Amino acid sequence: MYLLSIFLPLLGCFLGITFGRYVGIRGYSLIAVALMLITWILSWIIYYEVSLSGSVVLINLGTWIDSELLNLSWCFLFDALTASMLVVVLTVSLLVHVYSLEYMGGDPHIVRFISYLSLFTFFMIILITASNFVQMFVGWEGVGLASYLLINFWFTRIQANKAAIKAMVVNRIGDFGLVVGVLIIYYGFKTLDYSVVFSLVPHLHLINIVFWGQEINMLTIIGVGLFIGVMGKSAQIGLHVWLPDAMEGPTPVSALIHAATMVTAGVFVMVRCSALLEFGDNVLTLITIFGSLTAFLGASVGVFQNDIKKIVAYSTCSQLGYMVFACGLSLYSVSFFHLFNHAFFKALLFLSSGSVIHAMGDEQDLRKMGGLVNLLPFTYLCFVVGSLALVGFPFLSGFYSKDLIIEKAGTIYVFESLWVTIIGLVSALFTAYYSTKLLYLAFFMMPTASRTKMEAVFESGGFITTALVVLFVFSIFSGYLFKEAIVGIGTDVWGVSIFVLPEHTYLIEFEFWHLFLKNLPFLTGILGTLSALILNTLFKEYLFSLKLTSLGMFFYTFFNRKWFFDLIYNHYIVNKFLDFGYYVSFKLIDKGVLEWIGPFGISKLAYRFSSSITSLQTGIIYNYALFMFFGFICFVGLSFISNIIPASSISIVKLILFIATIFAVAKWSR
Fold it and tell me: Is 78 strand, coil or helix?
């Protein structure tokens, strides 16, 4: 059962690549969805047996690497964290498979597309079921490869090519940090197995190592290295720039990558490595700062975007910031709970966006929509539920996890808790604003599209509706159903999957937080919603006039262009590297220095030397007598200076004098 849950998606990918053309689109679609359905059912059985019944499973398939101290096996770990993540990944993946059957139905390469989806799912399962860091890294790189293939699925589009390459390059920067962290883990612990490393952390947390000439705590370097990897994969500020551009891929790809799988892999690794992060000096503070800045960045930029998918993408970026700074505050179970809920309502938002785009003839600009509430009533209902869950409306899934992060952050007695609480509330305000703005512009505003396009709008068919209905239900009930199991006080679900130091445990304090402070996340959500409604309905002209002022234009440009991160990277980093590569590496070194001391210089020197030697053969006797005279002078001179110059240098001096004499005589003879 456990191995089937891992390898059935790989089987689906293999069948699509090898036999897809023979069984046809319908046949392969049925096979792929059936395999994913079986895997999804198995994931819930595994969740019941492992997480709820407390039966941890470890499956060792055999030795993988056996070299001196490095001993690794193909070993799969099924604990509470793995089982919970498995449910999330396979639920969203199954629904994306079903959704794609209709959304991509007109594409002639749908077999290849679904094969890529299955491959992505397989590598994600490898990542979350790994029992050592190297096996985890295989899944980590595998999802990066699969995401490149999916983003670049429409490879004839230049923007898709650029987005896929950008995602790959930015993630490689983060992966470098992850590799450094894993290598230092092996250096310090002499093993890469989870169970051994996490067991030895309390005994080795005081060890310092020399890194870049500085003596630093080993666990601090490991934690920073792991977090750099998380920054790339989970799109934290600085390495977040690939996430919005990845919207160039098909909408099902956006839901699969940005909702529950690839971007949350970094958060999963942080929760998995909680023991390493807890003992690292100042690592948690660093994580908290970057996570809170990411939450604010995503929320503020999302307000000023006009592309429906990019708004949801920046919303994902913001929610990932919430998860990360929750980990920085040692709220690992709360962070995972938000990951769990976020997967469902964000997948609902992405797939609902895809339904709108599909109905509008691939139109994504909100300014060219409007009036869809009567034409797409079911999609509108899904959008409302997903948006309310995102905002944190009471009794929907986001309310139980997002508000909980802000509440607990406000009751933690560390310096950065006040900072992240304020940032979290401001981000929640912006989130409510752009969620309401999106709903208004797409569904209630007067239609701005052409009459022909509006007449062609249609509600989605059975496959898309099925996926949306399931996500609709999860977005409403997942928070209520799983709250006590995942973050309830005294819950024993996690066992040893999550480690928190006693001084970082804050279970009781937030229960006694003032009622008004507890209601602040909800009140900021209401304020953001009302602001969006009032400003976009009653004060549209005022907003437009404000944007045309110099200050308004500056702020609009700053946030619309994503804090100028792309501009800074392109102008000050990418272009500088390109200039260095052309003017220094290519022109100065390759075509300059290396040519002169390499093939061009040697050939030129050989030609001149041979020309000089040839010119000495004049056939005139007094020239030859002059050569003999110069040779005699050199011999006598060497005899006198041999007492001054070391014996080891005599041969070199002789060679130099010989060559100089030849050139001098040749010059004179001309």
Answer: strand
- Give which of 235, 59, 39 is closest to 125, Cα–Cα: 39
Return d(Cα 99, Cα 61) in angstroms, integer: 34
**pLDDT, position 461:** 79
In this prediction the pTM is 0.86
Asked if 249 and 162 touch (Cβ cutoff 8 Å), the reply is no
**Residue 10, both tokens:** 């790989």
Alpha carbon distances (Å) from 513 to 34, 413, 489, 509, 615 = 49, 13, 16, 7, 99
Q: Which of 649, 381, 493, 537 is nearest to 47 (CA)?
A: 493
* C-alpha distance from residue 148 to each of 18, 166, 228 (Å): 21, 9, 20
Tell me the pLDDT tens digit for each residue of 85-104.
999 999 999 999 998 888 88
Averaged pLDDT of the chain: 85
How confident is the model over 409-430, as a mean pLDDT? 84
Positive or negative, the CA dihedral 347, 479, 323, 83 is: negative
Which residue in 176, 184, 183 sits closest to 209, CA to CA?
184
Inter-residue contact 446 to 363 (CB < 8 Å): no
What pLDDT was estimated at residue 665? 54
pLDDT at 658 over 70: no
* Distance separating alpha carbons of residues 565 and 547, to the nearest angstrom: 21
Give me the residue label for tokens 């079986």.
Answer: 38
Tokens of 346: 């964000």
Q: Are 378 and 468 in contact (CB under 8 A)?
A: yes
Q: Is the pLDDT of residue 443 over 80?
A: yes
**pLDDT band at residue 664, thresholds of 50, 70 and 90?**
low
Going by C-alpha positions, the residue among 461, 441, 495 that lies closest to residue 355 is: 461
Q: Give burial (CB, 10 Å; 0-12/13-18/19+) of 57.
A: middle
**For residue 551, what pLDDT band results from cuts at 50, 70 and 90?**
confident
Helix (H, G, I), strand (E, B) or coil at 403: helix
Mean pLDDT computed over 433-457:
85
Contact predicate 15/31, CB 8 Å:
yes
DSSP line for 258-278: IIISHHHHHHHHHHHTHHHHH
Confidence of residue 272 (pLDDT cuts 50, 70, 90): very high
Find the mean pLDDT for residues 263-277.
Answer: 91
Which residues share a beta bridge with 65?
72
**Contact criterion met (CB below 8 Å) for 308 and 368:** no
pLDDT band of 184, cuts 50, 70, 90: very high
Coil vs helix vs strand at 67 = strand
- The DSSP annotation for 163-211 comes to HHHHHHHHHHHHHHHHHHHHHHHHHHHS--BHHHHHHHHHHHTT-EEEE
Comparing 135 with 611, the larger pLDDT belongs to: 135
Name the 3-class secondary structure at 66.
strand
Query: Which of 86, 88, 99, 101 is closest to 8 using CA atoms?
Result: 86
Looking at residue 50, the DSSP 8-state letter turns out to be: I
Tokens of 160: 């898709």
Q: What is the mean pLDDT of residues 261-267?
A: 86
Residue type, 359: A
Query: What pLDDT is stored for residue 253 in this prediction?
Result: 84
Q: CB within 8 A of 325, min separation 6: which ones?
A: 287, 288, 289, 290, 291, 292, 295, 405, 409, 420, 424
Task: Name the DSSP class of 19.
Answer: H
Is the CB of residue 459 less than 8 Å from the CB of residue 379?
yes
